[in-house]
Amino acid sequence: MQETKVDLGNGIQLHVEIGGEASDPTIILIMGLGAQMLFWPDFFCKSLIDQGFRVIRFDNRDIGLSSKVRHQGPRVNTFKLMGRFAFGLSNQGSAYDLYDMADDVALLIDRLGIDKAHIIGASMGGMIAQIVAAKYPEKIDKVGLLFTSNNQPFLPPPFPKQLFSLIGKPASNDEEGIVKHSLKVFNTIGSPGYLNQVEVMSTARKLYQRSYHPAGVLQQFLAILCTGSLLQIDKQIQKSTLVVHGSKDRLLPSSHGKAVSKAIAGAKFELIEGMGHDMPAHFIPQLSGLFAKHFK
């Protein structure tokens, strides 16, 4: 895949990778909270390319090699925001919200000269994808959503162990500390029985050496909390949508994905038995096949 930087013209530059034939239908991959674009496995991207798609993955703002955002506002009480968020209420105090991140995707489509694109959003990326599909329907063909939520009121909260493993602080911020922390996170949120420990550690080391910016993870988390429920957004989506979720996801239980599919007119829901909040190699043929069939 070819790497490039794309200036969106809004003060943000996104680091982008593009693979496949320019003449093939385009799929844009939108990754989740604190996750660099390499969390879209190469195997998954290649599988989609081999099935006749042009694939674009990128680092969201504040993560990886994309622009970092400085927040000049006062510190916020994260736990207070989480309490309001649980009731579907929006908050204030973040440097940006998911609507701003959706604008980034729309601008990326424009800057790359794409007429219409399919989109797949994972976790927080799925929340962003919902906003893009509702706000910019003229830019989107079909929608794929992977282990995500619309954060509507009274959905089952993430299991505390999984949530705090994701947003918790590592024991140290050096490379070894981050690698150990990453392994702990994936052992907690990943697909039981399908975790390749060596692969996770190797990927964590590669990501640390590529970019380490914990402030961006916190700001993206605040962006979610300050966006609130997407239930009304879902009701505006008129695009053919496939929602995929794992039966063993304890970060965002499958009821979140079911709520999204229920809220979007005509959406289809697919439950993957045994999958958690990750994309192990075992499930990639099934995942890529589902999305490729949906987009075709």
Automatic annotation (TrEMBL):
Residues 25-278 form the AB hydrolase-1 domain. Keywords: Hydrolase. It comes from the Bacteria. GO terms for molecular function: triacylglycerol lipase activity. GO terms for biological process: glycerolipid catabolic process. Pfam families: Abhydrolase_1 (PF00561). Coiled coil: none annotated. This is Alpha/beta hydrolase. The lineage of its organism: Bacteria, Pseudomonadati, Pseudomonadota, Gammaproteobacteria, Moraxellales.
